[in-house]
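[Automated response] Your request has been received and processed.

Submitted sequence:
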Amino acid sequence: MKTLQHSALIHVSLDLVGGLEKARDLLSRIMESGEISSISSIYKRYLTKDRVDLNACMEFVFKFDTVWGVDQCLQMTKVLGAEELTILTFDDSILMSPRLTLPFPRLHQDPLIIRCAAEAWGQYEHPIYQKSLSEISRTAPQAEEAEFHMQGKSVLDF
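Generated structure:
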């Protein structure tokens, strides 16, 4: 049995309509390469002020443990869902390249992303700010364009 050496936070954003089945498919394919050790709640982010479900997406973050390196994880996200999957963190790596910036710049700027990330791995210490995601989340503004949609673990119940 392989020892899972690396941990990453991965953000998922899918159209709300049909997104649940796509999320289940993505996660089952991702689990072929490692383990999903925790997952945030799933939130509905409205894309317009009308707050209509047809103009909304579902978003969540999961902690992914794997033997793969960062390049292999990046390749996996591109193959499985280039538009839907974003690597937010990979271990305590700080990286700035045309292909990938770690930690992801919007991790601490987007109130919904930081909330989901804190739910999935609150004790992760941001390598630049030297604060845990839970601490950063507590001081972040409220995600006003989003609302709770469903428990994240229900997506893992295949």
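Summary generated for your ticket: The radius of gyration is 15 Å. The longest helix spans residues 19-30.
If you did not submit this request, please reply to this message.
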